[in-house]
Amino acid sequence: MSQDTDQEAGTPTSGWTRLKNGLFNRPKSDQWVIAILCAGLGFALVQQVHIVNSDVAFAGARPGDLVQILDSLDQRNQRLDAEITTLQESKTALESGRDARQTAAEQRRARANELGILAGTIAAQGPGVVITMTGPVSASLLLDTVQELRDAGAEAISINQVRVVAQTAFESNSKGQIQVGGRVIGAANGTVTIKAIGDSATLASSLQIPGGVVDTAATDSVKVRIAQQKVVVVTAVVPLKSAG
Q1: This prediction's pTM
Q2: Which residues lie across from 223 on neighbouring strands?
Q3: Confidence check: pLDDT of 113 > 80
Q4: Which CATH number fits domain 124-243: 3.30.70.1880, 1.10.357.10, 3.40.50.11030, 3.30.190.20?
């Protein structure tokens, strides 16, 4: 599973008034599609604010670390800008009435595919990273890794052929083995392979920030290798009967 401005002159509420009138004066068949697009645009705005605020935490970082962090943030901004442009173009196409039915149908299919990827019910492929961890990998280290990847915009993640979704739990059993989503992923001191789809440079950078996943793993004597790839294939899926 895997999203920002209105600069027209007028009163502070004029933009919202136009948006409300546009939504509720349109034919019912495409109102919900426009609402989804607007919600996505709002989510992208929240992500921009989150990224700017998180930059304060690195005020004491070294110059070299700051360059790496800023590069990662710039890549995230570029990705968000591209998503914003796509949302705005789709919204404009719907509002203009040009091929409204076809556009709405395409949006529904795209949305269904996006939801399937986020829910883990369909396979996914695209640029991303393959992370290999060797050593005493802990459940907490895997959870931190997944959270960092999600924050960096990962759309689909798998760990040793187990699809990771929002409800996936990370635990250690009585034998010291790691369980992901209730399934043992290997020996306690074995190798764990994590696949994540998203902007490969951004994903890799997010794991290597000072005090991040790579530093934590080194402290725990876990070796980490990160490979950026143009095409990463995540074939593991969550069965439909247990996806909800």
Answers
A1: 0.56
A2: 134
A3: no
A4: 3.30.70.1880
